[in-house]
Design a protein that fits this description.
With about 1400 residues, the protein is an alpha+beta fold. The chain has 42 helices and 56 strands. Helix content is about 35%, strand content about 20%. The two termini are about 75 Å apart.
Length: about 1400
């Protein structure tokens, strides 16, 4: 056939053949290109190529001098490898990691010029919208380099824009978009083996596949993997289908792998005939050893004829065939063990569940799975990351057999603490009788969890929350049970039950037997009503009865108040009976003890009920690789308790979820049955306790000897409180200490050998479990500073001390608790209150007599009366009383303590207000910081997590910063504006690279009232995408420049786990400046000007020194050309904190948003503007508190202090003459006015209900810089006493110099605070070029200037290798991150180059670029 004059390449618009297009672009062959539905190259009238790679190879061969297909056979083989790699391995994370490694020493993938390998790999990444990744510097470099080549640019611009095929979905978790997924065309499959019940791991797989089935309106295939006839059972197939129905999963198609046995035999035969498979009769042990040694089998070289004969023996199931297997001939030298000639067929004599005796050979799962996936039309095969090594094998089979390749998409398997998910191990528990069956509540099977009370909706919510994440972690069960609680709490009916063995009768005088209807759920009337019976005799829990005292007023839930008249006890002091009388007219329930109860009446008999509680089958949180699970079996995993149940429990049916009030949630496992005529006994209602995710449900080792009390807590019975053997405990401590140290050494070895993350994570979990066990036994945290414990007799005594100390503390706590719970009758309380008043009046009388110099005889008589009153008070209450003034002010103290965040100790007359700090800055910095900002009244907690109320004391600080900075930037020509806080989805996603850093933090508004919005609206995380479209409208000419705007506003960044007030909150206040200039020089100049203003805020207003510098490329703002920053140092934590940033955005955003102006020199041309953005947040307030605060509270620098001076009158007594008191107060008011008139922020504290000492502490806690004390002697000497908050120094100031001296003293305080902070920074700012010294300085809470090569991979290594796994409690353990490149360098560039100073990391041999500041950071 005659060839066409010019070949025509039709390129698919849906799947562009980029490699072929690039080959056509670079080849000297003339090719006409057009776009169509399918790719093909028409060479002649009836000759065409339809594969993109075939076309590329053809075009490359037309111009051999260009070496596009390599210059020799070796290079051609390499090119072929990369062509396959681009399809099979990209754009997966693992594929990119390997590609990055390969490109490290290379400019091109093969040889020294561009080849088809580069075309194919670049094309795969281009179609996947690849973005530069700091973790893949070599890939990023290579991709960027090729993208700048004109031929690549022409091809990329010629490709038609693809329509978005990913459907719009709700933000339900971290689900990844499936590659190449088209709406309505996605086919996924769920292929379980019918050898057991579905467990939670299977449920995750099934629900993930069902998610994509629904999201893409695709098809889900339910395929039973029945390749192993020995494991397949019909019963298991049935229950798996039932489990899927329980999970509300509806497959579109059902199949078995055995449906394709004939096709699989044909494919095996094909591999044999092509020399790609061989029959091997090597025994299993030898075969395993050969694989490990990478040595070939003696049968690997058999001829095709020999292999066909052996295959025939296997198919026939002969004696010879039973000794053989069929192996794929792949690569015995491969680093991937799955490619070392895997077995693909075995000969078995067992009959198959579906095919019976028809076959004697059965395929392995690894062989059958990819083939059946391809044949059934699966587009996306979802597999857990544990199959990662088998992916190459998966694609090898498909490639060699010429089959279509589905996309393999990975997700992490689900691992849970104290849980086994191996079917083999779960089967062992069933067969050994440790559990009742596969639906046992202790089992992680779907049926077991549902039987334990887990709802299907909660299970789906849990799986949805995990999404398609690839992070392999071991989770606790509390997450799933807390989700479940949210589902059941609104609908669970409330009932009552009393422990039968711990029931106490209360006889209620005045009660009659009757009933009434009440709601089953106090907040949800739709749950229905129940009947509550009342009677003269009722049952209550013994733990409640122990709390009662004569005269106490208690509330019986659903009835009303009663007064306890008598509490009867036996010889052991246990309560046997309680007598009470109705007091229903008293409806004050606020301060009463609430009791659950049941009526004892024949009209409504209690229902015999058994409450069952189950624990984990395994006693170790995470089993190590070498652990035998049988060594960690929890023998006590079930506890039953007989209860007297609410009569309404007789109506429960199996599966009903209820709440037993003050005990927890339960599910009915077996309903109550009346008396059986054969046994003459009723069948009790069997309830199973449903965990709620609280701490008491997590990780408990044993439930032997426990019962759940009426308070909702776990109490130990006598059997459970036997004293531990001290020496045995000591031996156990020694063993744990040794195990912890050994485990720590193992983890360090793993990290040094660069072991995979999963292995390290598993070993760290084991270490944490050991430390938890150590703490439970010893009562203290394990720390590496404690020397190893030796097992001696002294050890026993030490352990004995620990145990005895714990027992004493427990007894002390019980006494204190009992003391707090003393309930006093109304009549007795009136007598006590009268005594308090009498004592107060008598005390005042004694003080007046003393101040008036009364005679000793008269004074003695009145003092004796006072002492008699106090003795009477002590005899009545059992407690001492403080001075009369204290008794008189008891009610006020209660109110004041509550107002000041204080705590009133119940059961004692003396009131202790916890006004001051309880944590120290040195002992527990995090707790100290929390207490400072709360007790200094800077913030108030809010009911939305991560959001806080800024109280006036802190907001006033922010206002001063706002005024100072606002005036400063207006002086530069910046103007204020305000843009809306809502952002449309299209606007937010316009600049995807920039917004990627904020994507997890974006909060979305999806509903208005009850109506769903057509499109979700974001709450701004930052304002670039809000403001810049308007800038594009406003800037048209060079006359519109510069445009310098700023807005004071709030932003919302939602997603994080550990909020800290001021430092890391979901909503915060800030200013954000956004400016545009005609030239880069103008913009860069502003960046540094603004940064200097920020530095002045810290240094001049906040008295905090900062380091000015530039962020590294890794740490700079997304989308910026460069970022400048100021970094402050927090001495209390040894960490740095970013103070503020000023970014030069270059033209990145102006090009994205088309912000251009007309070139004044050439009006027909338009130029893009240069932009900056800069911001400062309310984080400044937190930094100020952390740097200057001390163990007395906040210390505020005078220039920012809400109040600079507080005036406090002193020396005023109750016996003081009114005119003297008035004189002191008038003087204080006059001096306050003088200071205010001078412009100082001053407040006089003239409250009469607080003592001067209390006021001193109060204002010290709030950080007021200066306290002025004025008393009678001061007035007489015409002076005042000024007390500095920063160092406590007292200074006498003459009244004539009051204003001048106070003003100067405030300046001295401001400077003193700055100098102290500067000294702390200087002492902790180190310089080194030694890695060992770097790590040592870091552990000494320093920030370090060190030489750095500025390779991002090295930056990651510095952070990872400087982290500390084991540190003392409270010490920072994270690695050092780059903070900035200081503008002021310790070593010049010339010195670095001349001395050849290397990067600080021990494994880096590159010459440093400069010295970079590193440290632990917030």
């Amino acid at each position: 056939m005659p060839a066409l004059s010019i070949p025509v390449l039709t390129a698919s618009k849906i799947n562009p053949p980029i490699a072929a297009l690039l080959a056509a672009e670079h080849s000297k062959e003339s090719v006409n290109i057009k776009w169509g539905d399918a790719t093909q190259l028409q060479l002649a009238a009836n000759i065409k190529l339809t594969s993109g790679f075939s076309i590329a190879r053809y075009l490359a061969r037309q111009s051999p001098e260009l070496r596009l297909y390599g210059g020799d056979p070796v290079q051609q083989t390499e090119v072929d490898h990369w062509l396959d790699y681009s399809v099979m391995r990209l754009p997966s994370d693992e594929g990119l990691i390997e590609l990055n490694y390969s490109l490290a020493p290379r400019t091109f993938l093969v040889g020294h010029n561009v080849t088809l390998a580069d075309f194919a790999v670049w094309g795969a990444l281009y179609l996947a919208d690849y973005k530069a990744n700091p973790g893949q510097p070599h890939v990023s470099r290579w991709f960027s380099h090729l993208s700048q080549i004109p031929g690549f640019q022409r091809v990329s611009t010629s490709i038609p824009k693809r329509k978005e095929t990913t459907p719009q979905r709700k933000e339900e978790g971290k689900y990844v978009a499936l590659p190449g997924a088209d709406m309505g065309k996605v086919v996924v499959r769920f292929p379980p083996e019918a050898s057991g019940y579905l467990h939670i791991g299977h449920a995750k797989a099934a629900l993930l596949n069902a998610h994509y089935q629904t999201a893409f309106q695709g098809k889900l295939i339910m395929r039973f993997d029945d390749t192993n006839p020995a494991k397949e059972k019909a019963d298991f197939e049935k229950v798996i289908l039932e489990d899927l129905e329980m999970l509300r999963i509806k497959p579109d198609q059902f199949s078995h792998t055995s449906d394709f046995f004939e096709e699989l035999l044909g494919f095996a035969d094909k591999l044999i005939r092509e020399g790609k498979a061989y029959v091997d009769d090597t025994d299993a042990e030898t075969m395993r050893r050969e694989r490990e040694e990478r040595s070939e089998s003696r049968r690997r070289g058999n001829s095709v004829e020999e292999n066909l004969r052996g295959w025939a023996e296997m198919v026939a199931g002969s004696e010879v065939g039973l000794r053989c297997c069929l192996r794929a001939r792949i690569d015995m030298a491969s680093d991937n063990g799955c490619l070392r000639d895997p077995t693909i067929y075995r000969c078995k004599s067992e009959p198959h569940l579906v095919t019976g005796d028809r076959y004697r050979v059965y395929p392995t799962y690894d062989f059958a799975c990819p083939i059946v996936d391809s044949v059934e039309g699966v587009t996306h095969a979802l597999r857990t990351t544990e199959y990662r090594d088998r992916d190459d094998q998966y694609y090898w089979f498909l490639r060699e057999l010429g089959l279509r390749s589905p996309h393999v998409w990975e997700y992490a398997r689900l691992n849970l603490q104290y849980t086994l998910l191996s079917k083999r191990k779960l089967t062992w528990f069933v067969e050994e009788g440790f559990v009742e069956g596969w639906d046992d509540p202790r089992f992680p099977t779907v049926r077991g969890m549902l039987r334990k009370g887990l709802t299907v909706d909660a299970l789906k919510d849990f799986i949805v929350a995990q999404g398609g994440s690839k992070s392999v972690v071991t989770m606790e069960w509390d997450k799933i049970w807390s989700i479940n609680k949210k589902r059941i709490d609104p609908v669970a009916a409330r009932y009552t039950a009393v422990a039968k063995l711990h029931a106490v009768t209360m006889r209620v005088v005045g009660a009659v037997t009757e009933s009434k209807e009440v709601s089953k759920h106090p907040k949800n009337p739709e749950v229905g009503n129940k009947t509550v019976w009342f009677a003269p005799d009722i049952f209550i829990d013994s733990v409640d009865a122990e709390l009662l005292a004569e005269g106490a007023v208690v509330t019986l839930i659903n009835w009303g108040n009663v007064i306890v008249t008598e509490v009867l006890r036996d010889d052991t002091k246990r309560v046997t009976e309680v007598k009470a009388k109705l007091n229903l007219e008293n409806t004050d329930y606020k301060k009463t003890l609430k009791l659950t109860w049941l009526a004892d009446t024949h009209l409504a008999e209690t229902v015999p009920t058994v409450c069952n509680e189950f624990n984990h089958l395994i006693s170790k949180a995470v089993l190590g690789k070498d652990d035998n699970f049988k060594d960690f079996i929890n023998k006590e995993t079930r506890k039953e308790e007989l209860m007297l149940g609410d009569p309404c429990l007789s109506g429960l049916v199996k599966g009903d979820v209820i709440q037993l009030q003050r005990k927890g949630f339960y599910i009915c496992d077996s309903p109550y049955q009346p008396v059986n005529k054969y046994t003459s006994r009723p069948s009790p209602c069997q309830l199973i306790y449903i965990p709620d995710g609280s701490q008491k449900d997590v990780g408990s080792k044993s439930i032997k000897g426990e019962h759940r009390s009426g308070r909702g807590e776990v109490e130990r019975s006598e059997e459970g409180t036997k004293k531990a053997d001290p020496l045995a405990a000591g031996h156990r401590l020694a063993g744990l200490d040794a195990n912890i140290r050994q485990q720590g050494d193992l983890i360090r070895e793993l990290k040094q050998s660069s072991a995979n993350k999963e292995a390290v994570t598993a070993e760290v979990a084991t270490l944490l479990a050991l430390k938890t066990e150590y703490k439970e036994l010893s009562g203290r945290q394990w720390t590496p500073s404690v020397p190893g414990v030796s097992v001696t007799e002294d050890l026993g005594s030490k352990a004995s001390k620990v145990i005895n100390k714990e027992e004493k503390l427990k007894k002390k706590d019980k006494k204190a608790e009992k003391k707090k719970q003393v309930i006093i009758s109304g009549d007795k309380m009136e007598t006590i209150e009268k005594l308090k008043r009498d004592i107060s009046e008598q005390g005042e009388k004694v003080r007046e007599l003393k101040s008036s110099a009364a005679s000793k005889d008269v004074l003695d008589i009145e003092i004796k009366k006072l002492l008699d009153l106090k003795l009477e008070y002590k005899n009545l209450t059992g407690e001492e009383i403080s001075a009369g003034r204290q008794a008189k002010k008891s009610d006020k103290v209660n109110k004041e303590a509550a107002a000041e965040g204080g705590k009133v100790v119940e059961g004692e007359t003396k009131k202790q207000t916890r006004l001051g700090l309880e944590a120290t800055k040195e002992g527990n910095f995090s707790e100290w910081y929390t207490q400072v900002i709360i007790k200094a009244e800077m913030i108030e907690y809010y009911d939305v997590s991560g959001c806080y109320i800024l109280r006036n004391w802190s907001y006033a600080v922010w206002e001063k910063i706002v005024r100072w900075f606002d005036d400063a930037i207006k002086g530069l020509g910046v103007e204020n504006v305000y843009f809306p806080m809502f952002v449309s989805k299209n606007a937010l996603e316009k600049e995807k690279t920039h917004i990627a850093d904020f994507a997890p933090e974006v909060a979305w508004v999806t509903r208005s009232g009850q109506s769903e919005l057509d499109q979700p609206i974001a709450v701004r995380p930052t304002s670039e995408t809000v403001m810049y479209p308007a800038y594009a409208k406003w800037i048209q000419s060079h006359r519109d420049l510069p445009l310098r705007l700023n807005q004071w506003n709030n932003v919302v960044r939602w997603e994080f786990k550990h909020p800290q007030p001021f430092l890391r909150t979901r909503e915060f206040l800030w200013q954000e400046g956004h400016t545009a200039f005609a030239t880069r020089e103008e913009a860069v100049d502003e960046v540094h000007t603004i940064l200097e203003l920020y530095a002045r805020i810290y240094e001049e207003l906040m008295a905090i020194p900062v380091v000015r510098g530039r962020k590294t490329e890794k740490e700079k703002f997304a989308g910026a050309d460069f970022t400048t920053t100021i970094e402050a140092y927090i001495p209390g934590s040894g960490r740095a904190i970013q103070g503020a940033t000023s970014h030069h955005l270059g033209q990145n955003f102006s090009k994205m948003f088309d912000i251009m102006y007309e070139d004044p020199k050439n009006p027909s041309e338009h130029l893009h503007v240069f932009q900056n953005s800069w911001g400062l947040t309310t984080r400044t307030i937190g930094v100020m508190a952390m740097v200057h605060g001390d163990n007395q509270g906040l210390v505020m620098p005078p220039r920012l202090a809400t109040l600079q001076v507080v005036v406090i009158p002193c020396g005023i007594t109750a016996g003081m003459k009114p005119e003297v008191k008035e004189s002191i107060l008038d003087t204080c008011v006059r001096y306050e006015g003088l200071l205010k008139k001078s412009g100082l922020r001053v407040k006089g504290d003239f409250r009469e209900n607080y003592s001067p000492g209390w006021k001193f502490n109060h204002w010290e806690l709030k950080g007021v810089p200066l306290r002025v004390e004025i008393g009678p002697k001061d007035i007489a000497m015409n002076k005042v006493v000024a007390v500095r908050r920063d160092n406590g120094e007292r200074v006498d100031i003459a009244v004539d110099d009051l204003v001048n001296d106070v003003t100067q003293l405030l300046d001295v305080i401001q400077k003193w605070l700055y100098d102290r902070a500067k000294q702390q920074l200087d002492e902790h700012l180190g310089v080194t070029d030694s890695w060992d010294e770097f790590c040592s300085m870091l552990d000494q809470r320093m920030i370090i200037q060190a030489p750095f090569c500025h390779v991002e991979e090295c930056e990651d290594r510095i952070k990872a290798d400087s982290a500390r796994l084991e540190v003392e409690e409270g010490a920072p353990s994270m690695g050092a991150k780059s903070l900035c490149v200081p503008f002021k360098q310790p070593v010049t560039q010339e010195e670095i180059q001349s001395k050849g100073i290397k990067c600080v990391h021990k494994s880096c041999s590159r010459t440093a670029v400069n010295y970079t500041l590193f440290g632990r950071s917030y």
